[in-house]
Amino acid sequence: MSTSDLILIIDVNVIIHLEKAGLLDELINDKSIRIVDLVLYDEYQFKKNLISEKVELIKQVALNENQINEAGLLYNENRRNSFYDYCSYIAARDNNYSLLTGDWKLKRWVCKDVEVHGAIWYVQRLESAGIIDKKRLKEIYTIWLNDTQVFMPEELLASLIMEIE
């Protein structure tokens, strides 16, 4: 499996984490980022008090009827993941996108078919591309480490901070 140039965000929590780190504009302006329209609409409505309206500027992917039906069948067979997780999985699989999520139970289920990454990978990608520098990367890790609403391994974040120092 090769790294895809296009990245599909599975859930709004990743967007919230990036927004807390001051990276919403970078995310919106990243031409490689996509989100399934159903996911954006449903999760944004549920969490709109936690996230900027600017998320609607992210390029959206629509599923066809067959894809939506397949997502429903997958959800009925395995309710460990949400219907919207399956919609995103199918969109990524069918369009050769990588997935960006913090949902590790979903990652274990879909990683045989699509590449799956998390927010840490994404910010490291921004740093590698010169969009942010090491100082900013350290600030982002520190923000996430100190935020009780960001669920990332504290040991990993602390280690990444130490590597930069």
Give the helix/strand layout:
Elements: E1 7-9, H1 12-20, H2 24-29, E2 33-36, H3 37-47, E3 60-61, H4 65-77, H5 83-95, E4 98-100, H6 104-110, E5 116-117, H7 119-128, H8 134-146, H9 154-164
What does this structure look like?
The chain has a domain at 7-120: 3-Layer(aba) Sandwich (Rossmann fold). The protein contains nine helices and five strands. It has helices at residues 12-20, 24-29, 37-47, 65-77, 83-95, 104-110, 119-128, 134-146, 154-164, and strands spanning 7-9, 33-36, 60-61, 98-100, 116-117. Helix 4 (65-77) crosses helix 5, helix 7 (119-128) packs antiparallel against helix 8 (134-146) and helix 8 runs antiparallel to helix 9. The chain is globular, with a radius of gyration of 16 Å. The model has no long low-confidence stretch (mean pLDDT 85).
Search tags:
about 160 residues; alpha/beta; Rossmann fold; five-stranded parallel beta sheet; 9 helices
Strand content: 5-15%
Cα distance spanning the termini: 34 Å
Mean pLDDT: 85
Strands across the major sheet, in which order?
A: 3-2-1-4-5
What is the element string, with H for helices and E for strands?
A: EHHEHEHHEHEHHH
> CATH homologous superfamily of one domain?
5'-nuclease
Q: Looking at CATH, which topology of one domain would you report? A: Rossmann fold
Architecture of one domain, according to CATH?
Answer: 3-Layer(aba) Sandwich
The helix content, as a percent range, equals: 55-70%
Main sheet specs = 5 strands, parallel
Computed CA radius of gyration, to the nearest angstrom: 16 Å
Tally the beta strands.
Answer: 5
Spatial shape: globular
- Derived from helix and strand composition plus strand pairing, the structural class reads alpha/beta
Low-confidence stretches: none
Oligomer: single chain
Q: Can you identify the CATH class of one domain? A: Alpha Beta
Count, helices: 9
